[in-house]
C-alpha cells in the first residue's frame, strides 16, 4: 500500500453521528469500532467510537474517534481541505457540508480564479472546498 495522508478527527462523544453524516456527504464504506468492542470496561465510553474510518468512492479516507471523558480540547488549529476540478462532485459536497453550518466564505469565484468556500459544519469541523477552474 502506498503512503497516504488523511485527517484523523477527535470528538467529545459524537464521532458516530459525525462519521455517519460524512458518509451521507461522501458515500463509501464506514467501519466503526467502539471502546467496548476493544475490551473497555463498562463505562460512559463503552459505546463511544474508539476508531472509525470512512473510505469513499473518491479515494478519500477520513478517520475519527471520541476522546476519553474530559480529554477533548476543541480548537480550530486544523481544517479539512477538498480540492480538484470536478465541479459537480465538489459542489455536491459543499451543499451537504454547508447545510446547517456556519459559512465563513460562501462558495464563489475568488481572486485567484478558482471557486472556493469555507464552512464550519454542525460538528465543529472547518471544511475548505476549492474547485480549480480551467485556465484560458
UniProtKB/TrEMBL annotation:
This is VOC family protein. Residues 4-129 form the Glyoxalase/fosfomycin resistance/dioxygenase domain. PANTHER family: PROTEIN YJDN, PROTEIN YJDN-RELATED. It comes from the Bacteria.
Amino acid at each position: 500500500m502506498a503512503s497516504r495522508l488523511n485527517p484523523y478527527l477527535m470528538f467529545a462523544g459524537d464521532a458516530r453521528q459525525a462519521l455517519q453524516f460524512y458518509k451521507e456527504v461522501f458515500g463509501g464504506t464506514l467501519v466503526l469500532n467502539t471502546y467496548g468492542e476493544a475490551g473497555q470496561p463498562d463505562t460512559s465510553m463503552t459505546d463511544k467510537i474508539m476508531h472509525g474510518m470512512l473510505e469513499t468512492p473518491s479515494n478519500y479516507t477520513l478517520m475519527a474517534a471520541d476522546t476519553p471523558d474530559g480529554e477533548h480540547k476543541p480548537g480550530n488549529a486544523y481544517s479539512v481541505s477538498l480540492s480538484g476540478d470536478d465541479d459537480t462532485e465538489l459542489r455536491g459536497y459543499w451543499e451537504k457540508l454547508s447545510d446547517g453550518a456556519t459559512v465563513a466564505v460562501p462558495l464563489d469565484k475568488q481572486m485567484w480564479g478558482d471557486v472556493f468556500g469555507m464552512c464550519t459544519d454542525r460538528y465543529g469541523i472547518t471544511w475548505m472546498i476549492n474547485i480549480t477552474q480551467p485556465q484560458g
